[in-house]
Amino acid sequence: PDANKSGMLPDGAVVALLECTRTWLQRGGGLASGLHTTGAPECKGDEWEEEYETRDELREAWIGLRARLMEVAKLCTALEPVASASAMAESVTAVLGWVQPGGPLDPSKAAMGPDGRSAIDDAIGSALEGCVSFVEPAMHAVPLTSNPVVANAAAPALEGMLTRMLAVDFTSPVAVSQMSRLLESMGRTALVRPDAGAALLHRLFAILAGLPTDDVKSPPARAKAAMMAGRTSQAARQRVCAAILGVCAAAPEVFNAHLEAFANQVDSLRTNGRLSGAERGALAEALLAVAGPSGPARIRTVLRWLLESVQRRWVPAPGQVSPDVLHLASLRELAKGTSAGGREGLSEAHWELFHDVQLAERCLRRSAGDHDNNNNKISADGDGGSPDKQGDKPLGDKPQSYVPAGMVRPVDPPPPIDECPASDHLEWVLSMTSALCRAIHDVWTPNGVAEATSLGLDRALCMSPEEQGAHLVHGPARTFALEGGGVAAASETAEAARNFLRGLRDSAYALVQLLSVHAPAAFYANQAVANAVGAAAYHELAHMHDRHVRVLLHTLVRPVLGRCPASRRPTWHAALTAHLLPHMHERLVTSWSRVKASGVGKAS
Q1: Cα distance between residue 229 and residue 170, in whole Å
Q2: Distances from the Cα of 541 to the Cαs of 128, 440, 545, 560, in angstroms?
C-alpha cells in the first residue's frame, strides 16, 4: 500500500500482476514434477515442449522461471495481502471445481489403466501443482500475526479455501501427493485459527491412514521416485508425512498442547507397521517441532523417546557398537542381496539400519535451537522468511555482520549444555558414525575394490548414470550418460548397495556436523571427540576418490572448523587440518603429474 501511495505502482497493478503470475504458474503445472499435462485445463506443457529438444530441457528451464514467478507472488502479497488472499481463493475454487462430478477432471468418469491408475491422474496432479505453485508462496507472505487488521480482512477468503480443500477426497497417489502440498501451504492459518490447524492435521492423518501400506519396509523413494511425482503409494505417504511436518513447523505453539496425543497417534501407526522408515523420520521431526515451544527439557524427553530404540539396537553399551553394523556394511553381506528375504535389492536388516541412521540424523536436525549463529539462514522451524518470523533470532544470537554463502560463524561462546538436548546423544552417535565411516571407507581400498569385483558389486563403487548426468549439460554426452554410458545396467543388488553405502556415508558426515551445531559446548570442549572425529573422517583417506574427499570437506570438515570457538581451534585444527593439508598437497602433485604425462593441453 505504501508503495502505491508513493506512485511506484499504478492503481490495480498488483492485482494484475497477481493474475498474470497465477495464470503462468497454472500453465506450467505438472512440469516440475515430471507429470504428463495432457488434458489438464490451462496447462501448456505439451505446447511449450515443441520449442525445446527434450521434455527434460523444458522442465529445467521451467523450474528456474517458476522460482521467479513464485517470488513475484510473494512480493505482490506483501504489497496487497487481501487482494492476494482473494486471488488464492479464486485459484483454489477453480482447480477443485475441475475435479468435481461433471468437471473436466472428474476422476469417476476416467477409464482405469492396467496398473489401476486413472488415465487422467497426471492431469489432476498437474492442475493441483499449478495451484500449489501460486498458493504456497503467497500464503508464506501473508502477515497473519504481525498485522491483525490484514489477517481479519483476509480471513474469509482463507477460511473458504480451507473448507474446500478439506472437503475433497482423492485416492490416486498422484493427486494425494499434490493435495497434501496444498494442505501444507495452509499451515500458517493455525497461527490465527488454531481450530484450522487441528482440522489440517486430522485430515492429513486420515489421508495417511487411507493409503496402502504394502511397501512400508521398502527403502525411501529417492531421485527416480521423486520424479515419479508420487505415482507410488510409498512416495505419496512420504509426501503426506512431509506435509504433517510442514504444518507443525508453521505453528508449533498451537500444537504444543496436544503433543502427547500427537505422539500417541504416531506411536500407534509405528506399532501397527503402517509407517516406513522415511515416514517415521518425518513424523519424528514434526513431534520435535511441536515440542520446541516447551523448551529444552521437553525436547530432551521427546528426543530420548524417539532415539531410545535406535541407541539400544546399534550401540547397546557406551562405546560398544553392535557387530551388526560392520556386518551389514560389509561387501560380502551386501552381495547376498535379498537371498534371505528383503526387497529392493537388500535384506530387511540392511534397510532397518539405513532407516535408523537417517532417523537419528533427522531427530538431531530438529533437536532444538539452531546454534549456528549464521544470520543469513532460515530458522530451525523452516519459516524464517515469513513475515511473522522476521524478528526471530537463534538462541543467544547477537547482532552480527552478514555471513557470505558457504561460510559459517564460530559458535563463541557456545550455549550451556543444559540448553542442548542433543548433548545427551553425543557419545553413542559418535560411536555409531565412527563405525560407519570405517566400514564404508574400507570399501574403496584396493582390497575392498578387489572383493567387490569378485562378488559382482564393482558397479556399486561407481557413480550412477544420474550422478554422471548431473555433472553434464544438456546434449549428447549427458543423454549418453543417463542411458548408461554404453554399459549394461547394474544389477538391483549393486544399485541398492550403491545407494545404501552413499546414504549411510552422507548421514554419518551429517550427524557429526549436526552435533557441532546443536551440542557445541559438549562437542568442541572434548579432546576425545576431536580425536574420534579426525580418525573417523580420515580413515583410509589415501584411497578415497576425489569426489568423496570433496563431499567430506564440504559436509563435515569445513562446517565443523568454521563453527569452532576460538579457544578450541588448536585442538580441532590438530585433529582435522594437520593431516589433511600434507595429504591434499600430495594428491594435487600426483594428479597434476598425471595430467602432464597424459599430454592433455599440449599444442599439436
Answers
A1: 15
A2: 48, 12, 9, 18
Largest Cα–Cα distance in the chain?
75
Cβ atoms of residues 303 and 421 within 8 Å: yes
pLDDT interval class at 403 (50, 70, 90): low
DSSP designation for 319: T
DSSP 96-139: HHHTSTTSTT-GGGSPB-TTS-BTTHHHHHHHHHHHHHHHHHHH
Lookup: cell for 40: 489438464
For range 189-202, the mean pLDDT: 89
CA distance 548 to 409: 25
What is the predicted pLDDT for the residue at 374?
Answer: 53
| pLDDT over 80 at 387, yes or no | no
Q: Do 64 and 70 form a contact (C-beta atoms < 8 A)?
A: no
CB 559 within 8 A of CB 516: yes
Q: With 70 as the cut, is the pLDDT of residue 207 above it?
A: yes
Select from 150, 170, 48, 154 the least CA-distant residue to 105.
Answer: 170
Mean pLDDT of the chain: 85
DSSP state of 258: T
Q: Which residue has the cell 497493478?
A: 13
What contacts 558, CB < 8 A, 6 or more positions away? 408
pLDDT at 31: 92
pLDDT band at 219 (very low <50, low <70, confident <90, very high): low
Residue 492 has pLDDT above 60, yes or no: yes
- Please answer whether residues 232 and 225 qualify as being in contact, where contact means their C-beta atoms are separated by less than 8 angstroms: yes
C-alpha to C-alpha distance for 413 and 396, rounded to whole angstroms: 9
Residue 390 to residues 135, 145, 376, 386, 393: CA-CA distances in angstroms?
A: 20, 12, 11, 6, 8
- The stretch 329-355 carries a mean pLDDT of 88
Using CA atoms, how far residue 226 sits from 38, 222, 292, 533, in Å, is 20, 6, 30, 33
487 touches 419 (CB < 8 A): no
**What CA–CA distance (Å, rounded) separates 505 from 444?**
13
How far apart are alpha carbons 588 and 594 in whole angstroms?
Answer: 10
- 109 is written with which cell numbers? 468418469
Q: What is the pTM of this model?
A: 0.80
Integer Cα distance of 581 and 541 in angstroms: 12
Find out whether 165 and 183 touch, Cβ atoms under 8 Å.
yes
Burial of 116 (0-12, 13-18, 19+ CB in 10 A): exposed
Residue 383 has pLDDT above 50, yes or no: no
Nearest to 314 by CA among 302, 304, 324: 324
Residues ≥6 apart with Cβ < 8 Å to 522? 417, 420, 423, 426, 529
Whether the CB-CB separation of 565 and 520 falls below 8 Å is answered with yes
CA dihedral 435, 436, 437, 438 (to 10 degrees): 50
CB atoms within 10 A of CB 244: 28
Least confident range of 325-329, 431-435, 489-493: 489-493
